[in-house]
Amino acid sequence: MPTQKDQDRYEVDPHDGLRRAIVGGWAPEKHLRLRKYVDITRAVRGKFGRNATYIDLYCGPGRARLREAGDIVDGSAIVAATEAASKNPYREIIIGDLDPLNVEACQERLNRLGIANVRAFTGTALEVAGKVLPTLNPTGFNLAFLDPFNIEALPFGVIETLAQAKHMDLLIHVSIMDLQRNVRSMMMSGKLDAFAPGWEKTVNRGATNSTLVMQVFEHWRNLLASMGYLISDNIERVRGNRNQPLYWLVLAAKHDLADKLWGEVSQVEPQRRLF
After folding, report:
1. What is the pLDDT of residues 90-124, one digit of tens each?
2. 40, 72, 79, 145: least surrounded by Cβ within 10 Å?
3. What 3-state DSSP class applies to 14?
């Protein structure tokens, strides 16, 4: 029986009879960056002999309606797979989601588009990352898109697990809106420990809310750096239609080329940078 939360977040798509999500109007901008990065790394995939994998641990149902505008858009896994399909396609598309209905719908849509090299998993992002890591080619090139609904759904253990792969670019959606609303309650409840372990060593609890958010984010970035990741300074800052901050889109990779390519991707629209 669908819950009220499900009804607010999902509906049936009359076009194909599968579930689709209901999302905010900022989703296309986020997916535009993903599409451009997949396109601009096509030569990199070619150098790896097409031994490249796309990983989407929060895949959703693969299709969505924009809540206010009403436009129908593809989900991130569809965007990445179809963009790569004619230009050094991924050897494998890996999708995962906590909701089995999302996984089923996304996989079906990929298959209907002729994307047959799909492996699908149901579970938390941490569970799926643990299952996926041992199956990746140790010399392959991988791109993981991490786009959770909220901060709590992105424990740092997910990044630690994926970082064990030799070649793993990470494109991460960090909800600043969620962090601004809940940073203090997450500190008190202990939930912030999962997202940014060790935060209490570098964060001033008595700081203003906006300073707290920045300090937590800087600590999180430093955790990424401690694993050998280079975090691009081209951090996309996306705002809503009332100019409210929504999310940061962060690229982390272990090679300098990624930052150069991401810099080119970020030129697709006027910048809204964090730094």
Report:
1. 999 999 999 999 999 999 999 999 998 999 999 99
2. 72
3. coil
CB contact at 8 A, 129 and 57: yes
Residue 108, beta-bridge partner list: none
Q: Which two tokens stand for residue 129?
A: 């990352």
State residue 246 phi and psi, 5-degree precision: -110, -60
Q: If you search the block for the tokens 């939360």, which residue do you land on?
A: 5
Fold of 4-255: Rossmann fold (3.40.50)
Q: 236-240 long-range CB contacts below 8 Å, 24 or more apart?
A: 236/33, 236/266, 236/271, 236/272, 236/273, 236/274, 237/176, 237/272, 237/273, 237/274, 238/26, 238/29, 238/30, 238/272, 239/272, 240/24, 240/25, 240/26
pLDDT in tens, 2-28: 555 566 899 999 999 999 999 987 788
**CA 17 to CA 3: how far, in whole Å?**
19
C-beta separation of 109 from 62 below 8 A: yes
Q: Which residues of the chain have pLDDT under 70?
A: 1-7, 240-241, 266-275
Query: Residue 110 carries which side chain, given as an amino acid letter?
Result: L
Element (H, E) at 168: strand 168-174
Read off the tokens for 161: 């697990």
Q: Alpha-carbon distance 258 to 228, whole Å?
A: 14
Q: What is the rounded CA–CA span in Å between residue 266 and residue 3?
A: 38
